[in-house]
Amino acid sequence: MAKFILIAVFMVVLIANFTSSEVAASSGVVVGSSNPKEEGNKLAMVQEEEDMDGGFSSLDGMLQWAIGHSDPGVLKERSEVTQRMSPEELNKRQTELKELMEKLKMPSDAQLMLIAVNDLNNSSLPLEYHLRALEELLVLVEHIDNAIDLQKLGGFTVLIRILNHSEPEIRTATAWVLGKASQNNPIVQKQVLELGALTMLMKMMKSHTTEEAVKALFAISALIRSNVNGQSLFYQEAGDMMLQEVLSNSNLDIRLHKKSLFLIADLAESQLENENTAEVSFFSNRLLLKAIVDSMASSDLDLTEKALYAIKNILLLRSTEVQLFKDFCKLNEVLERTRQQLNDHREEYAMDVESLRKEVNLTFLQKLNKVKETLI
């Protein structure tokens, strides 16, 4: 704190040096002639800022503090001393001040990311240092440009390496950072996919730690969303089996079920938008389709809604075997049971879900009728 005060006072003196002696003298009057009540309020505000963050919030705040706590007569005297300095002495003082201010300057985002990456690379540091570095990156990569620049610092290479860390906390936080960086960022998606992150994240889905699996699924979704190459790789890595296992296991955290259904709906929508791409067997996995349909039986309305969205998008695909939905998945029966369950709810949200259920039912019946027409 003493260094900050010294710099602030010296800056005030330097500023005074560039004015005439008359202005310098009058500035002493102005500084000391403010209304006592107003001056007290200003000082109270500055003191409040110091109490909050342990220092000055800005250079302006530092100058305000220095002026408010300086004696006008002393300032005038020091100004006169400074004016008597030779140009060489004055330049030397100014250079010293500049060097001090450079040291106190806030580091850029790139510098902060580099510090975090270096900490993660340093295996001798305690676990809490690595977790803190990951927390820093989690905030910094929310900015798209920062996320792109992270690879220039070797950041993604380090992050993907520590997906194999022995501590679940580190793996969980790392997956979260990768997911945040990849969200709506095709450049980062490409970089991370090329480094082989998807396969590692899919393996993390088998973790016995719920949070690790949740963050891994979040990262997978962010990595392949609206990314045709990422989705193709996901299909090649048996992504349908991964999601089927999640949805078929009622003991898993409901967040995993919801995220899985959301991902399936998103993949089907992406398939609809890219009509020129070949249809994939992913949406013909009968066990996966049954697991999706069975999810509608949940008492959780949000889960029911996500299951309905997934079914709706899949039914819209040209290659969908609607007879499979009817005979194996018993979709018509489940839709009817869901209608009865929704009737027991009186909240407005249930009405919205019921509207979606009707839409799915209509699409299902229309698709069935088309199949019947082709058989006639």
Quick summary of this structure?
By secondary structure, this protein is an all-alpha fold. Helix content is 76%, strand content 0%.
Descriptive key words:
single chain, 376 residues, mainly alpha, Leucine-rich Repeat Variant, 22 helices, 76% helix, disordered N terminus, adenyl-nucleotide exchange factor activity, signal
Written account of the structure:
The protein has 22 helices and no strands. By secondary structure, the protein is an all-alpha fold. Among the domains are: 2-104, no CATH class; 107-237, Leucine-rich Repeat Variant (Alpha Horseshoe). α17 (254-273) packs parallel to α19 (301-315) and α21 (331-343) packs antiparallel against α22 (348-375). The longest helix is centred in the last third of the chain and has 28 residues, at 348-375. The radius of gyration is 32 Å and the shape is elongated.
CATH-defined topology of the domain at 107-237:
Leucine-rich Repeat Variant
Instruction: Report the end-to-end length measured between terminal Cα atoms.
Output: 88 Å
User: From the coordinates shown, what is the CATH architecture of the domain at 107-237?
Assistant: Alpha Horseshoe
Helix coverage percent of residues? over 70%
Strand content: under 5%
Shape: elongated
**C-alpha Rg (nearest Å):** 32 Å
Count of discrete alpha- or pi-helical segments spanning 4 or more residues: 22
What is the H-and-E element order? HHHHHHHHHHHHHHHHHHHHHH
Low-confidence runs: 1-6, 16-58
Q: If you average the pLDDT, what whole number results?
A: 83
